[in-house]
Amino acid sequence: MPTPPPAPKITEAEWAVMRVFWQLGEAALGDVVRALEDQLDWKPRTVQSLMRRLVEKGALISESQGRDFRYRPAFTQDECQLDEGRSFLQRVFEGRLTPFVAAMVEKQEVSKDELRELRALLDEAEKKSLTRKRS
Length: 135
Known about the structure:
With 135 residues, the chain is mainly alpha-helical.
């Protein structure tokens, strides 16, 4: 099975637009403008420009419905977050996860709940690793 293409690199402003699509699934320009108007002081033209760039980058799919256009994400939020996270780790931490986690835990306040979640994730990853080695 071929590896899916990586999600395109998107800017911080484009992430705001994509979050709307991941929440709504499919939307028209007006839907996105309304969803963002309480959060950001952007004009409709700004949102339209960002959406056009996202279509050009392949992050959004645009479909004509009569005189209107509907848009939907070409990638899931998880796919974009994973690709962005990998890119960040590579650029900043030479692809190494441990120094990143260590820096976050040492320099940030981490709640007991977050530590519990991290432990559970690590335990699960260790179980999967052991299972793969036995196969």
